[in-house]
Design goal:
The complex is a heterodimer of chains A (251) and B (281).
Chain A: H1 5-20, H2 34-52, H3 54-60, H4 62-75, H5 86-96, H6 99-102, H7 108-123, E1 132-133, E2 143-145, E3 149-154, E4 173-179, E5 186-191, H8 193-205, H9 213-220, H10 225-241, E6 245-249
Antiparallel strand pairs in A: 1-6, 2-6, 3-4, 4-5
Helix pairs in contact in A: 1-2, 2-4, 3-4, 5-7
Chain B: E1 5-8, H1 14-18, E2 27-30, H2 40-52, E3 55-58, H3 72-84, E4 87-93, E5 96-99, E6 102-108, H4 114-131, E7 136-138, H5 152-163, E8 166-170, H6 171-181, H7 185-190, E9 197-203, E10 206-209, E11 212-214, H8 223-233, E12 241-244, H9 252-270
Helix pairs in contact in B: 4-5
The chains are: A mainly alpha (251), B alpha/beta (281).
């Protein structure tokens, strides 16, 4: 290490000041100027969080939101070289610190996760897609899903209703987020437990719906096979129109 | 690209750059960190821009001045990205953006000290070896020196010399620093190793106090910075020149006019012809 301990310590003290805003004494600085570094650094981080979490920041209000950002940046060492990924670290930090419980906002984890997932799906690298045909039978042929998607399991329906009174709706909710191939826009669809099960099964196992139709019928308590077939064809047809299902695997 | 005029590829103006309407640069620059590992819409935009224009990259997160070890995984990803995009010039800031292994996402001033010269120079050499190319380091704007034991010019010159790297001369930063710290900008330019300059940056700034300018890249270049630019290029061989604009994109015609003004000055001093300005980009 060519850097002397004294120089290293000075650099660290300036870095600590920028993270925490706690006053620091540094040699050879111009009076009144150091504060601009804290302001500039903090503004970059704050803007990143404001843009990533417009709903959460608005719901918590300016003062509380600023406390959360300040707590995060003061006590967490950001790892990402790319600032657009920093909001994920913010979500992880407050999840691990149990902030939602401390603030008595049980829905906060779900909301941060949902808002982050929108960014992640929008920005994630393009994933490979297996060859597919646009014509096929959605019960018989393996389905090819849009690979740029995520299914979130939530405790609160933060994706479909206002936060007022949301805590009385604690339950099991699923939301599908996917990226439209042509526009790159992120769309989200509220999923029932049954729909989430079907999509996760197709995604993970790549098998035709016919091969696990029995499980579907059991979960949905559907006895009529014709009704079930029509139901599944409608569901998948709708997802094809929305470009969440791209087509049918080439055999 | 020598004597050519480029602009930073920002998302707000990406389509106007790709369509060459109304912004017609000769080349583009972007920060690798803003585009690496990204898919979807913005990845397609990057691909279009790269297929149309020569590319330079200006890094944000390498943190050449940090006390801690370099992030070699990042350097490896960076190398792949620079190769994939056929990046002609890669530059970074002579500053640090990481402290105690925490990224801070802005440029902090390195103490102008001999041990820091040795430390940073060694890191630049190691990065150059890993990337398989010389890099250019940028003189950054700073708002206070910290624990300095030598002048800024000696600090920069020593590092360029010792590490055998190139210099990205940010003329606006020279102006900003000269104003903020009360030195003569032209003398500063005279003391720079102009034969090692690979690239020039030009930008606007913002005066926030009577004795303090912040380097914001959000406003048009002011005349004294153009004057300093003319003074500078009169003393050196042609290199690429970039207009940095990070926000305030409402008036694209005026940004286009800034590019044209830079071209006029370059034509006058260096005699370089700009096809892009004539609609042939």
């Amino acid at each position: 290490m060519k850097l002397h301990k004294e120089t290293r310590d000075i650099q660290h003290r300036l870095g600590d000041y920028c993270k925490t805003g706690r006053e620091v004494s540094l040699p050879g600085v111009t009076e009144g100027r150091i504060k601009h570094y804290r302001r500039l650094v903090y503004n970059v981080v704050k803007n990143s969080m404001d843009q990533a979490y417009p709903i959460a920041s608005s719901a918590l209000g300016t003062v509380l939101w600023d406390e959360l950002v300040n707590d995060f940046f003061s006590n967490h060492a950001p790892r990402s070289t790319q600032i657009w990924k920093l909001p994920h670290e913010f979500y992880e930090y407050h999840y691990s610190k149990n902030t939602a419980t401390k603030l008595k906002r049980a829905w906060l984890n779900d909301l941060l996760w949902f808002e982050w997932a929108e960014i992640e799906v929008h920005t994630m690298p393009d994933r490979d897609v297996l060859p597919y045909n646009e014509e096929g039978d959605s019960l018989v042929d393996p389905l090819i899903l849009n690979p740029e998607h995520e299914i979130l399991q939530l405790e609160f329906p933060v994706h479909k209703q206002s936060l007022v009174d949301i805590e009385s709706h604690r339950g099991e909710y699923y939301v599908l987020l996917y990226r439209e191939p042509e526009t790159g826009r992120v769309r989200f669809i509220d999923l029932s437990v049954l729909h989430a099960f079907i999509l996760m099964k197709v995604n993970e196992e790549g098998i035709p719906l016919n091969e696990f139709k029995g499980e579907i019928a059991s979960i949905a308590s559907i006895e009529s096979e014709k009704y079930l077939d029509d139901y599944l064809r409608d569901f998948m047809g709708n997802l094809m129109e929305k470009k969440m299902v791209l087509g049918f695997a080439v055999s | 690209m020598k004597g050519k005029v480029g602009i930073g590829l920002r998302r707000d103006i990406a389509n106007e750059i790709i369509d060459s309407e109304p912004i017609r640069p000769d080349f583009i620059e972007f920060a690798p960190e803003n585009w690496m590992g990204i898919g979807g819409y913005w990845n397609r935009i990057r691909e279009k821009a790269v297929s149309k224009y020569p590319v330079t990259c200006h890094g944000l997160s390498l943190s050449l001045g940090s006390p801690e070890e370099l992030d070699w995984d990042f350097v490896s990803e960076l190398k792949a990205f620079l190769d994939e995009n056929q990046v002609q010039i890669y530059s970074e800031h002579l500053s640090y953006t990481k402290s105690k292994n925490a990224h801070l996402y802005d440029l902090l001033p390195i103490p102008f000290r001999k041990d820091a010269v040795d430390h940073v120079s060694e890191r630049i050499m190691r990065v150059q070896e890993a990337l398989g190319r010389r890099i250019a380091i940028e003189n950054v704007s700073y708002y206070t020196p910290v624990a300095a034991e030598m002048s800024e010019t000696d600090f920069i010159c020593s590092i360029v010399e010792k590490s055998d790297c190139r210099l990205l001369l940010d003329v606006n930063n020279v102006y900003v620093n000269a104003f903020n710290h009360g030195y003569d900008a032209r003398s500063f330019i005279d003391n720079m190793p102009l034969d090692r300059v690979e690239y020039i940056h030009m930008a606007g700034h913002e005066k926030v106090e009577k004795d303090l300018i912040i380097d914001t890249h959000g406003r048009p270049i002011i005349d004294p910075v153009y004057d300093l630019f003319e003074y500078t290029i009169d003393r050196m061989e042609p290199v690429p020149v970039l207009l940095e604009r990070d926000y305030n994109f409402e008036d694209l015609e005026s940004i286009s006019a800034e590019l044209d003004h830079l071209r006029d000055l370059i034509r006058k001093k260096w005699g370089v012809v700009h096809e892009a300005a004539q609609g042939n980009a």
